[in-house]
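Per-record layout

source: Micromonospora coerulea
name: DUF1232 domain-containing protein
length: 113
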Amino acid sequence: MSRETWILVVLAAIVALATLVGAVLLAVRLVRARRLLGALGAGGKVAFYGALIYTILPVDVLPDPIYLDDMGILAGALLYLGRLAHRHRAAQRRLPGQPESPPEQGRLRRPVP
């Protein structure tokens, strides 16, 4: 093998290792977010388990040495779970009798007599 071929092989191995490490880190973050599943409902559970199953199963959109599709699925699931958790926390902070959404800018709501 020539020197250029070895350089390409080494660079490909480094990129494959970097994407594997990224996918593992995202999977670890997703597993840590598992404690929120009880409060997030069925959508959160589907996103969590769907992302983990897609990552573990050998059938992928891209071949396994390229983990970009796995990383995309895991990142999407984390974003979705984060938004669900944010909405859940906002709903818990809301006082009873308080409106679901804040009034529009420039308009004040008047109490009905």
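summary: The chain has a mean pLDDT of 77. The chain has three helices and no strands.
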